[in-house]
Amino acid sequence: GVTREYWLSIENTTLAPDGYERYTLTFNGTIPGPAIIADWGDNLIIHVVNNLQHNGTSIHWHGLRQLGSSEYDGVPGVTQCPIAPGGTMTYRFRATQYGSTWYHSHFSLQYADGLFGPLILNGPATANYDEDLGLLFLSDWSHTSAFSLWDSARAAGPPSLDGGLVNGTNTYNCSASVDPNCVGGGKKFETVFVPGKRYRIRLINVAIEGHFQFSIDGHNLTVIANDLVPIVPYETNSIVIGEGQRYDLIVEANAEPGDYWLRSGWQAACAANQNADDMTGIIRYDASSTVDPVTTSDITITSNCADEPLSNLVPHLAMNVGNFSEVTQETLSFVFESYFMWTINSSSLYMNWSDPTTLRVVNNQSTFPTEYNVVSVEQTNPSDEWTVYVIKDESGIGLSHPIHLHGHDFWVIGQAEGAFDLATSELNLVNPPRRDVASLPANGYLAIAFKKDNPGAWIMHCHIAWHASEGLGLQFVESPSQITMALADKEAFEDTCVKWDAY
Ligand code: C2O
User: Fold this and answer.
1) Closest of 181, 172, 185, 175 to residue 275, by C-alpha
2) Three-class DSSP labels, 132-147
3) Cβ distance 391 to 344 under 8 Å?
4) How far is the CA of 472 from the centre of ligand 1 (A)?
5) pTM above 0.80, yes or no
6) How crowded is residue 359: how many other Cβ atoms within 10 Å of its Cβ?
């Protein structure tokens, strides 16, 4: 592998992605940010400059295992101090996996205001396609900043948003608006197909809370990967995608030449407050065409916000779950004391921002604030030892939760509605789906397994942005005595925390 270097500047920028001008947060001025591209095995050096005036930040490389580099996972309060305004942090890690993912701010709700971008890691050329269209971002979108909605969100539940973006663009209808910020001029995402060619689309859901069902009128989708894991390909006419999830799709330009809608249907059952029904883009067979498609959809939007059926998501490289000695069961619940707080195992993962320097690098390793909902994972037998973890939704809220784990792909060994019972609930240990975000069904359970092979501090959280900020998470501290950190890294970390002291 070679070393690839990138520079990201975090700025607040006025943009009108859908024709409504607002304060946004951007990487190098655009939404999405610039593509970071590397080959499997490469080393990445990414310099992040915080050009915000009043807020800290930190950047997470979603789904990357950070083998031996836990300190670059980018979670403020868990693996680093936030980068102070005016500060810089250089992230260094290796691309030990390949496929489609994203980088995003992991500081509060910042990614919902625009801080997300493509991270593409090229692997062996096994998929059969002619052209790579790169990441296709699906996001919900509000005309005020997510931060400004935060107080009401945690006091009264999720606020109504204004619409959605497909790859950072859409058309909001300003014709009836007297709002001076409604400037118009948004456009639909468009791409051109050449008849007979096969296109790779790296679909990703980066919404605050939107759950989508993606389809392209008149075309089938061949699914070749979930998250960073290649799967045995399957064909479908639509795909359900939860927050933080990715699916790599091959689409063949085999329809009658014309203009076709590409649709990200809202799954109303888990984002009932959405009023957008036009989260669409356009596929054209003739680049000079400017008309709206007249195609219709023949898919039915499902309403349970479940993941794609587990039986479809068969990893290409078969791996079974190995030895584990116990099954840890934890309960997801929530409390309301003037604010919503979600809990797992009766506690919330809530950062102590009155002292953001609680995380310090001391004596060769990080310290992990113990009040931050810590679960210990200790490797005692280095050859083949696993953790099995079952999260049960007993909140009674009736929502599914996209559960994301850092530092590991996990094996999805159980996922169902209803109560979990160790004696009778079936766990699939034989080449189950592997990925880094899976849905915990409403009033049900999600059972995951992962190998204890990556010493570090790894947060696990719901990828609905409101819920993560309402404490729905915990951190696994895995084999802390084996965490290693290069001297240069330690100095970089001390530096970040010292800047906070000075700030
Ligand atoms: Cu996509 Cu904890 O993040």
Assistant:
1) 172
2) EEEEEEEEEECCCCHH
3) yes
4) 12
5) yes
6) 27
Write the CB contacts of 225 (distance below 8 Å, at least 6 apart in sequence): 99, 100, 231, 246, 247, 248
CA atoms of 1 and 93, how far apart (whole Å): 12
CA of 464 to the centre of ligand 1 (A): 10
Residues lining ligand 1, Cβ inside 6 A: 60, 62, 104, 106, 244, 404, 406, 459, 461, 463
Residue 415: exposure state from Cβ atoms within 10 A (0-12, 13-18, ≥19): buried
ipTM of the complex as predicted:
0.99
Alpha-carbon distance 73 to 456, whole Å?
9
Domains of the chain: 327-502 (2.60.40.420)
Mean pLDDT by 10 residues, the chain (503 residues): 96 96 98 98 97 94 95 88 91 96 96 98 90 96 92 87 94 92 95 98 96 96 98 97 98 98 88 68 97 94 89 97 92 86 84 55 47 79 87 94 97 97 96 98 97 93 94 89 76 72 61
CB 68 within 8 A of CB 28: no
DSSP for residue 468? H
Which atom of ligand 1 is the closest one to the Cα of 111? 1
Closest-CA residue, ligand 1 atom 1, reads: 62
**CA trace torsion 10, 12, 17, 21 (10° rounding):** 180
Report CA(410)–ligand 1 centroid distance (Å).
14
Which residue is associated with the tokens 């007993």? 394
What pLDDT, in 10s, does the model give residues 112-142? 999 999 999 999 987 899 999 999 999 999 9
Beta strand residue intervals within 151-296, DSSP E: 163-166, 189-192, 198-205, 212-216, 221-226, 229-236, 239-241, 246-252, 259-266, 280-284
Nearest protein Cα to ligand 1, atom 3: 62
CA 261 – CA 249 distance, rounded (Å) = 17
